Fold this protein.
Amino acid sequence: MASYAGTKLQLTIKYKTKMKEMKIIYKALFLFILISSIFIFSCMKDDFRPISEFNTNSRGVFIVCEGNFMYGNASLSYYSPLEKKIENTIFIRANGIPLGDVAQSLTIHKNTAWIVINNSGKVYAIDIDNFKIKGKITGLVSPRYMRFVNEQKAYITDMYAKNIYIVNPENFSLIKTINIDDASGNFYNHSSEQIVIYEDKLFINTWSYDNKILVINTNTDELIDSIEVFKQPRKIIADKYKNLWVLCDGGGENSDYQGDAGIVKINMQTHKIENSFIFQNKENITDMQINKTGDTIFYVNKDVFRFHVNSASLPEKAWISSGNKNIYAIAQDPYNYDFYISDAVDFMQSGMIYRFNSNLYCLDSFAVGIIPNSFVFK
Amino acid sequence: MIKKTFNIIIILFFGNFVFSQEIHFPDTIKIIDEVFIYAEKKLSETGQKINKIDSLIIETKLLNDVSALLSENSSIFIKSYGRGSMATASFKGTNASHTKLTWNNIELNSPLMGIVDMSQIPVAISENIKLYYGASSLIKNSNALGGLIELNSTTSWSKGVKAKIISQLASYSSYDNFGEIRFGNSKIQSVTKFYHSTSKNNFPFLNNDISEQQIEYRQNADYLKYGFVQEVYFKPNIHNLFSVKFWKQLSDRGIPGLTSNEAGPNNNKNRQNSNLNIYSTNYTHYGKKIRFEINHGANFQNSNYKSTNYINGIGFLNVVNAFSKSNSIFNSISSKYNISDKTEFNSQINYNFHFVNSDESILNQTFTAKRQEGGLNISVYSEILKNLKTGILLRQDFYDKTLSPFIPSLSAEYFFENNLSVRASVSRNYNLPSLNDLYLKPGGNPNLKAEIGNSSDIGLSYFLNIKNFSLKSDFDLNFSKINNWILWRPTAMGYWEPDNIEVVIASGCETNLIFEYKLNKLKFKNIANYSFTKSVRSDENENMNNNSLGKQLPYIPRHSANIFSQISWQNFFFSYQWTYFSTRYTSSAAEPGVLVSIYPYFMNDIGFGKNFYFKKIDFSLNFKIYNLFNEKYRSVLWQAMPGRNYSLQLSIKLK
């Protein structure tokens, strides 16, 4: 009897223990499923791109923000100086699609802004007031700058195509190409960058691993001359005396293609070099612009310098000191002499724009997209 | 009962999305179906966070690459450029160069780039995958600031011949095959593995990043990867073991452009092919009190990257044609001496040599560099009091003619009676700049300093083992301060350059859980992970426009989690995989916006199948559905990702 009671007690204890264990297990399982189900069935929200309507009939400044290579984060900003108002990422907001990868330049022709997207192989045409897409030219290798001759003819330069494209902007079509290959096999010559038009000639700098200014006849669309300058001619402008000024960055410090950096002055009539200036220091040589009257040049060599086109030498002191900023682009407003400077910061976040009056008093500052590289005034 | 229930609730909530930590099985113990066996943690792993990837996961994902396996089944963050494209790993908010990957003691990180493309590493080449977080990598003589992923091959010493073939057919003309033959006896074993993966990868997607908004087919995203592994093990007696392992792989893949690219099908065609040859030799002596090991091996890698355009009047022309070659030799001698059954002394000496050559033929940019490195480390681990174990490790390395920073590490672990343990560690570690960081033309910075990290960890582990139920849970808090962090940034010259950022602080917590239950013929297994990572720049910048101070570093998510569940009944099985990453920012100031951030990522995959068991042969059929809810998503900016896709896998095992 005692043995039977003892056995029964043992069985009862075992049964209760088993039930306790089962309850623990079921509770744990239930809690796990409950917590997990809250998250498992969550859905992803794909990019939401609401469309904004713009109507900017007054004067303004387009600021081209390159973005980072292969990040696809190029953008366009628009600043209204009268209202002191900045609108960022206007392209995606107006059209619902991203601008692309590395916005290199913007050209305004009549009521259309043409945006060259270097690593997306295309040029977008947008309305300069409402920023809506009017059309595009695609199938380009690595386009850089665009320059108009007339309504039916424009040139587009390219870094890797070894050709310059001739396009019809009216119907967004490619007409033909101009071969600029130097056939030397060295590096990837020639690349083509900016265009300055003088009479019936194009002057084009070859920035990437090159040191030439190419001259093309716009009637025959043939290469007629090339002028050797310092290594890596980065920017070109023309002054009121019909001279071409070339800013050369001399190649990077850790590059095998290095040399003097400086500025070269070329007579666009004779194609002769009239003067050349070598920089004592080369550090962040990124931009060169000319004022409205065509007689004062501004350039960036870490700081901002300015000099008159008839100067015998380069300025020793900076006109605007960069301090701790990374000055990347400069421009003077053709309407009121205000001066704009972009700070690219660390090249991986929003850039900053400063607007000064002619007395270098800061009128405004605002953030824009990544690596603001140029200002185009409407 | 209340106390036990409370414990479980605490673990589940505390562990939240839990984490995975495999139970350690010593090699000599066989797993019996109904019994869960737990091995005591090795003394040299005192205070360390070390996870072993569950063998079920490895078996399920044998045809995958390591990046997919880690992304779905660990707390490591994988930055992937898409199916078949580059993928890198980072532990606890560090970057890809802080993650080391070894295969049978041979480091796979390229001395040129400093990183490993995890998408090129098949799961099938190893049986054993272990993750060493942070300072725990020091016991493997690795200077991995983030952590170490160890891939190891093993053999079972069974007699006769065993073979396995797995073949998979999947969407987008994807074909994967794997074969393995093992034969030998109790003294000598040969293992041969071969694999072949190819895919056109031309998945359809809606491209709403261009003005036409049309369905397109992914171009230039095809891949091919094939190789073989040969292993020979020789065990003349129980005290000595020799092994030789060789791995060869060839791969070729297209690198697709961004969805916004409209250069045309003949332009911006980027391709990469690689050739990998690795061998590893090992001799281990097991004495009564001493274990002695000699390792030697080499890693020979070369690759070619091309970017091609169609040039009017010329034809197809390369704009980039970059060749890179790296040769590395690894040597180490290590010993473990059991001073007593509660104290062990370890030492290791190593010497490695690296040679690299990088040549870009279009721009004529070339460099050659060498580096030799080596060092000595000694450590003592001891159970100084009942249930309290401590460890101290000291290491001194050199590279070329320079002494590296001195590395100390302290760790401790206390084991409570109720299967709960608490651990802690503090350590210092360093990471040398890669040879590319120093010498690449253009952009390399020869003045770069080594990154130095000081880190600390505190963790809790708990396991519960009832007859048909087991639960193991880990929780870990970590903090690292890394000085001279190397960051590549664009410059005004148009190319990128590396620089030392003064300080990055990476901190956070991780939890993981393994949960197994058996009810009659129903088996249920869950493995889950969650991590919170805050990885921010903490040095003041003189430019007041720089807003990167205190902001999350690019591409590192604050939250990540994954769950793998499998239910099996008789010979049927059903599995579910869920993966989550929170928002990732791509600018240095962690700015929101569709151009500079990627929205949170949730992914659901399922699989189901059946096993067939016969006397001499087993079959298994497994059907999987990836991206179950056919979601449009992004892993990196402006790269298309596939919608719902499928695979059918057949496995055959000869017994």
